[in-house]
Amino acid sequence: MILRKFFKSFAVILAGVLMMAFLGGCGNSDKLSGEWVGSGRYNQTDFDCLYTLKVEKNGSGNGYTVTQTRSYWKAKENISDGSVSYNWNEEKTQPMAGSAKDNSLRFTLPGNTQNSSMITFMEKDGTLQYTTGSNTVTLHKEKDIKGELEKFKNSQKEKLTNDLTKIGRRFTFNE
């Protein structure tokens, strides 16, 4: 009798644990969705950008929507006195539709119907490889986008300050 109660209790507990494991796994099956952040070059320019990609599942199937924000210090040179003024710039795209196959998602950037971009989920470290133009940027999931943005903004400002000071260039920063 005691043995019978034990096995019944064990069966109920085991069923509960298996159900929790199954339901917990269902919520994590979409590797691509989320907010991703990373820094890298923009096309053939000489400056780094902070890329923020928001990837969202678009209905059922393999459809997704991607919104990209590219943030960087944009230079405006004053020809008359040779000084440079840097303004903090954030360029956000309209949501872009794409479709996923395996661990990759291909989408077309607005205004560029000839070329598409691709993000690939890297199983080994849980990052995305974002291929845009001739550049590849590694992105990681980020919960504190504003904190990451401020860190990048300040580090790039410091780098520019050091570089411009070395060459004796006059400059200002506007936020």
What does this structure look like?
The relative contact order is 0.17. A hairpin with a 5-residue loop joins strand 2 (48-57) and strand 3. Mean pLDDT is 82; it is low at 14-28. An eight-stranded antiparallel beta barrel has the order 1-2-3-5-6-7-8-9. With 175 residues, it is of the alpha+beta class. It has helices at residues 2-27, 145-166; strands at 34-41, 48-57, 63-77, 84-92, 96-101, 104-108, 116-122, 127-132, 135-141, 171-174. It contains two helices and ten strands.
Q: Shape, please?
A: elongated
Strand order of the largest sheet: 1-2-3-5-6-7-8-9
Order of helices and strands: HEEEEEEEEEHE
Mean pLDDT: 82
Total helices: the number is 2
**Radius of gyration in whole Å, from Cα?**
24 Å
In the predicted model, the low-confidence regions spanning at least 5 consecutive residues are 14-28
Strand percentage lies at: 35-45%
Largest sheet: 8 strands, antiparallel, barrel
What is the helical fraction, as a range of percent?
Answer: 25-40%
Got a strand count? Answer: 10
User: Terminal Cα separation, in Å?
Assistant: 76 Å
Assign the structural class, choosing from mainly alpha, mainly beta, alpha/beta, alpha+beta, or little secondary structure. Answer: alpha+beta
